[in-house]
Amino acid sequence: MSSSEGSRLGKLLALLETGGSLDIRRAAAEQVASIAQTHPAQLPSLLRHIRSCLRHTQWDTRVAASTCLGLMAAHFTHHSVITLADAAGPATGSPVKTEALDGASAMPFQDFNITQVLQQGTVLVASGGQEYETLPEEGTRAEQLAKQQKNLKQRSVLLTELPLCSHPMQKC
To answer: How many whole angstroms separate alpha carbon 23 and alpha carbon 6?
Structure first.
């Protein structure tokens, strides 16, 4: 991308964020999407900027950013599970069965019966919270409290020692 296109893109992104009206912002969104189509290498930086616009305090900026994302999505091809499985090839050992994805074996929406699912289906995940209840323990209330604090400290030590800790506030 040349420097004139870079400065044009910068101006368009500024218009997207601070344009005088919704129409100006929409026009800037259309032009940013066309630049994204011609320069796909700039897509990650564009998406970062548009993401910040999606969280902007002004409603018009958020609308323009979402319009821009929609237009950008329209310019790029979308892959299905079948095309991704074909691209991966058999060498990857992918567990995806393409014969089940071709649509022939999928149940059409017209045949879906929610009543039958509710009557004959099994519960996938459910909890009444019983697994979190503690059994009454022996000893005084102070001893029970001390034991619970000890258990809590042990659990917190286990959490901080996990090698793949992804929580930003926790030391890993």
So the answer is: 23
